[in-house]
Amino acid sequence: MIEKKTPYELQLFVCTNLRPEGRACCSLRGSDRLRDALKDWVKKHGLQQRVRVSKAGCLDLCEQGPNIMVFPGGTWYSDVTDADLPSIIERHLRPLVAEPLG
């Protein structure tokens, strides 16, 4: 085993879990679209080396989804919609655009 420091300053884990038989889940509530929008924003602003937007399996709060977990920082967003993305971007991503890499 090789232990390393995470290569990203910020990681957003977007639950994209799809449960069988139409049970409540983040995927059926649009989480793939949310993840894609966040990834596009990161790419558009040149933050790919600093920020990772990842698919997450079940985060175990499907009834409250879509769910997004921000690491580090311990911030958890539930019931996220397209309308919420600007707030998430302003709080977590926009500050990195102005900061030097380091």
Topology (elements, then pairings):
Layout (H helix, E strand, L loop, with lengths): L9 E6 L15 H14 L6 E6 L11 E4 L3 E3 L7 H14 L4
Parallel strand pairs: 1-2
Antiparallel strand pairs: 1-3, 3-4
Write structural notes for this entry.
This protein has 102 residues and is α+β, with helices and mostly antiparallel strands. It has a single domain (10-81), classed as 3-Layer(aba) Sandwich (Glutaredoxin). The chain has helices at residues 31-44, 85-98; strands at residues 10-15, 51-56, 68-71, 75-77. A four-stranded mixed sheet has the order 2-1-3-4, with helices on one face.
Summarize the structure.
The chain is α+β, with helices and mostly antiparallel strands and 102 residues long. It has a single domain, classed as Glutaredoxin (3-Layer(aba) Sandwich). The protein has helices at residues 31-44, 85-98; strands at residues 10-15, 51-56, 68-71, 75-77.
- How many helices in DSSP terms? 2
The average pLDDT value, as a whole number, equals 89
Q: Name the CATH homologous superfamily.
A: Glutaredoxin
What letter string, H or E per element, gives the SSE order?
A: EHEEEH
C-alpha end-to-end distance: 26 Å
Indicate the percent of residues in helices.
Answer: 25-40%
The number of E-state strands comes to 4
Q: Architecture, according to CATH? A: 3-Layer(aba) Sandwich
Return the domain count. Answer: 1
Shape: globular
Q: Poorly predicted ranges (pLDDT <50, ≥5 residues)?
A: none
SS content category: alpha+beta
CATH class: Alpha Beta
User: Radius of gyration from the CA trace?
Assistant: 14 Å
Biggest pleated sheet: 4 strands, mixed
Q: CATH topology, which one?
A: Glutaredoxin
Strand order of the largest sheet: 2-1-3-4
